[in-house]
Amino acid sequence: MSPSRAAGHAAQPPDFSPRDFRATLGMFATGVTIVTARNDQGEPVGLTASSFNSVSLDPPLVLWSLGKAAGSMAVFSNGRHYAINVLAADQQALAERFAARGVDRWAGVAYTDGAGGAPLLEGSVATFECFNRSQYTEGDHVIFVGEVERCARRADASPLLYHGGRFYTEHPLHGAPADASAPRPPDGRFVGSYLGYLLGQASHAVYRDFENAIAAQGLTHIAWRVLAVLHDAALSHPENQGAIAVGQLAHDVLAKQPTVTKLVQRMAEDGLLALLADPADQRRTLVAATAEGRRIAAALIEQARAQESHLLSRWSAHEADTLKRHLQKLASGQ
Ligand SMILES: Cc1cc2nc3c(=O)[nH]c(=O)nc-3n(C[C@H](O)[C@H](O)[C@H](O)COP(=O)(O)O)c2cc1C
Fold it and tell me: Where is the HTH marR-type domain (predicted)?
C-alpha cells in the first residue's frame, strides 16, 4: 500500500531542530506499553513503546511504531502475533527496564502466554493480543498495525502516563464523575455521611492494629507522635539532629504544651529524648531524639508503613494519593 500524497507537492524542509521536534512531541501525553512477542527460539522479547494508538473499531485494529534500528525489529516484522501490554501506574520500573539495553528485561517478570505465545504481563491495566496484520515503513520507523484477537482490562486500575520524558499517574480534573463504587448512605441520614464521623472511623481503622505496636514499645500514643515528629525533624535538619522547641513539638503532636513538657521529661529520663539548650536563646529548651529514640521511631515507622500498605492494598496509587492530598488540604484549613 502506498501513502497518498497531494499530487505534485512535497513538504517544506523543517524549520525546527530534531530537539525541538522531540520536545514538541513530548507535549502529547500518552500511556506506556510493553509490546511483547516470542522469537524463533521461543524466548520472550519485549520493548517499551508509547506510540500505541487505536485505528479501527470494526475490524478492531491498533497501531504502534518501532524504530528501524531496534534490536527486536526482526522478531516483530517476521512474527505472526504480538501482545500490547498497557502498563499500570506502579509499573514505571518495568517501563524503564524494557527501554534499557544490556539488562535482563525478563528477570523476575511474571506473565502468561497470549496468542502465539506473546507474553501477557501480570499487573498490566490492559492487554491486546494482536495478529501482525500489516507494516508500513515511514522515515526511521516501521508502523505496525495489529488486528486484535483478544483484549482484557482491569477497570479499577490506574494507567502509567508519559510526557516530556517523565512518568506520571492520572489526576481527574474537577467535574469528573463521582466514584460510583463508593458506599453512600440512604438520603436524610446524618451519621454515615458526616465528615467528622467518617474521619473518626477512618482514623480508628488506620490505628486499630498499630496501637498494639505502640503499646508493645511501652509508649503512649502521644509519645509515638513525639518520636515520629522528631524523626522527620532529624531528616529535615540533620545539622542539629532535628532538635525543636517544646512549643513547636506540642503544636506538631496536637497536644497542650504543659502535657508535652511533662511527657518530654519522662521520655528523657527513659533515654528516648535529649534536652538541649537552644544556642540562640539559652532559656529555651530544645528536644531531639536520642539514638535509642530514633531506633524505636524507625521500627514503628516501618510497621506503620507496612500497615498502611496493607490497608490500602486494594486502592489504586491514584486513589491513595488523592485521599492524602484531600486530607492535607482539609487539615491546612483551605
Ligand atoms: C516511555 C518510552 C516510550 C518509548 N516508545 C517507543 C516507541 O514507541 N517505539 C520505539 O521504537 N521505541 C520506543 N522507546 C524506546 C525503546 O523502548 C528502546 O529503544 C528499546 O531499547 C528498544 O528495544 P530493542 O532494541 O530491544 O527493540 C520508548 C522508550 C520509553 C522509555
Answer: 192-332
User: Per residue in 83-115, pLDDT tens?
Assistant: 999 999 999 999 999 999 999 999 999 999 999
Task: Provide the b/e sequence for 216-255 (b: ≥16 CB within 10 Å).
Answer: eeebeebbbbbbbbbbebbeeeeeebbbbebeebbebbeb
CA of 58 to the centre of ligand 1 (A): 28
Measure 260 CA to ligand 1 centroid, in angstroms: 56
Mark whether 157 and 93 lie in a shared domain. Answer: yes
Q: Tell me which residue has its CA closest to atom 21 in ligand 1.
A: 99
Based on the fold, state whether residues 29 and 151 are members of the same structural domain: yes
Q: Encode pLDDT of 166-201 as tens digits.
A: 999 887 776 555 555 666 655 677 888 899 999 999
Euclidean distance between the first and the last CA atom of the chain, given in angstroms as a whole number? 59
What pLDDT is recorded for position 185?
A: 56
* Ligand 1 pocket, Cβ-based, cut-off 6 angstroms: 32, 47-51, 64-67, 70-72, 95, 99, 101, 162
Separation of CA 302 and ligand 1 centre (Å): 37
ipTM over 0.90 threshold: yes
119 belongs to a structural domain: yes
